[in-house]
Amino acid sequence: MWWLVSPQNPLKDVAGMAPLPARIAAARLAARHPRIRVSAVEVALGTRYAVDTVAALQRRYPKTRFIWLIGADNLVQLHRWKDWRRLACRIPIAVLARPGYGHRLRTAPAMAWLRRGLHRATDVRHWREWELPAIVILDIQLSPLSATQVRARDPGWAAAVHVATETRS
User: Fold this and answer.
1) What are the tens digits of pLDDT across the range 145-168?
2) Range 42-50 contact pairs with CB under 8 angstroms and sequence separation of 24 or more
3) How much of the chain, in percent, has pLDDT values that exceed 90?
4) In the predicted model, what is the mean pLDDT of the chain?
5) Which residue has the higher pLDDT, 135 or 146?
6) Fold of 2-144+157-168
7) 56 and 45 in contact (C-beta within 8 Å)?
């Protein structure tokens, strides 16, 4: 799994974002699995939007079949993403459900269009056969905390992560 850390989320204010190296370090600490590779590949690709990143990755790795994993909070705002319908027509989307998002997931503006490609989680093993657009909602146990809540609990987290990763090197 590639965990893509965005250099700058186009929907978020630059002032509210921690520096990219701190966010990469935090993602590496959180990943905790050898098969999760944290990457800031958008920097190398020169892309800013998910639809462009996916297109570039598909060109670079033409034999690889990708699935775009997003949190429920992102599905709720997917309709605000640049060319989100084109993104959904390029790659299957798997949504990681979060507590408190059940109703909001099903009534999200993008779901009115995506619903025709909705698959059951029990069918996920056959994702390579799905016709695009395709979306599946995965009910997995996750922390109920949002990234905003985590940062609010510890405003100095970025500096602490930076120090922790420097000491491990």
Assistant:
1) 666 666 676 666 555 554 444 444
2) 42/4, 42/6, 42/7, 43/7, 48/7, 48/8, 48/10, 49/10, 49/81, 49/82, 49/83, 50/81, 50/82, 50/87
3) 60
4) 86
5) 135
6) Rossmann fold (3.40.50)
7) yes
Q: What is the pLDDT of residues 72-103, one digit of tens each?
A: 989 999 999 999 999 999 999 999 988 788 88
Report the residue count for the chain.
169
Give the DSSP letter of residue 61: S
Per the structure block, which two tokens stand in for 123?
């069918």
> Are 162 and 132 within 8 A, CB to CB?
no
Give the tokens for residue 114.
């995506």
Contact 68, 50 (CB under 8 A): yes
From CA 136, how far away is CA 130, in angstroms rounded? Answer: 11
For 116-132, how does the pLDDT look when each residue is reduced to its tens digit (9 = 90+)?
A: 999 999 999 999 999 99
Q: Which two tokens stand for residue 106?
A: 């099903």
